[in-house]
Amino acid sequence: MALFRTFLFVAATWAVAQMQNVQAQFTPYFFDGFDVSTATEDINFENDTARQGGAPAPIDYVTNVDPALTYKHQMFDESAPLRVLQLAEDNSSVVGPEGPSPTMISPDLNFNGTLPNGDIIGKRITFDMDVAAILPSFDEHGVAWTFAGVTVGGDRTLIDDVDSQGFIDGEPIPDHFSARFVHDRFSLQTEFMQAYEQGALVSDNTGCIGCFLNHLGGDGTLSVQIDIDDPDDGNPWDGVGSTVVQVSVNGDPIRNPNNDEVWTFVKEDGGFTDNYITLFGKAQSWNHPVDPTLTRSLATHTFENFTVWSAPLFPVDTDLDGDGDTDGTDFLLIQQSDPSLIPNWQANYPQPLGASSALSSVPEPGSLGLIVVVALHGLCYRPRVTSSRCA
Predict the structure, then answer these.
(1) Which CA distances in Å does 78 have to 39, 133, 301, 353?
(2) N or C, which terminus of the chain has less Cβ within 10 Å?
(3) Domains parsed from the chain with CATH numbers
């Protein structure tokens, strides 16, 4: 028994050392928690302090909001219930292709390219959001549905799903992919995602795949993770091969409603070459059933922990069961087949709510301890033994 205890101690020590010395596959490149010292409508307020982090910080944001309507983007200090970025829309913007334009902000930086260590910028984007943080009563203001989302792969700033700003400016719709998260109070769809490519819902020979994509996040805060890659050469921005986009919500990949399989978007013919990112939010209003003048409503959407990650050309695949994600089942399979992949599993495991604020390439001590405890539990397991002697 003493020998077995010694073995466990050595194994645990080796595991911790390995995890601390292996660089995470996905490393934060840029982070903005939108934490400010006082409430403000200035989206670039204190962006050179602890609010932002990473190599390119500070980064300024650009917006489509009229200077007279700056209440449409606000940040709040620690006295507020949530320290977040709020984007609001009340249909008072200039009109775009689907009616009033969404409120949009974009970091003024193209998140593509290669770092000196060979890592590719922009292979993962994460943020926490609440699509319908504040909504008026449907009976009071006639809001049918509201949405908020993100655009990636854009060749310029301020591109929402249908490129409202380009429509207003008379510009052609550029390449981009948009994930629009919808809070629906008009039909039975309730919460779902829509996928847009170059201003149109994604379709294939089976119909509109991008119209109603299922997610399990429900109402409230969503932890969104967007993984972007090129399966051929590992660089989704080099204009060669393709760009593949997979969206996950609260750790679960978006699924095709037709067959419940994990859904990915593929941009063929070289894929995207640029990666300007836009956060956007909008409310859709319908006429009030009694008073048709009550058609405006202020819908508020929140964002926080916005992070752009870099990664090697070919991160180690830890989806051992082939179900489209990295989860606890994969960890058990790695335990049994190749424990040296545990650090890679941890790097690939979906980020929990708020975890993107940890700008570190080394796993957190708490999560290290959890993995070691699980590993030790596996080592301690003995078939047909009714009492544990590992305590």
Answers:
(1) 9, 17, 18, 18
(2) C
(3) 2-22+317-380 (no CATH), 27-311 (2.60.120.200)
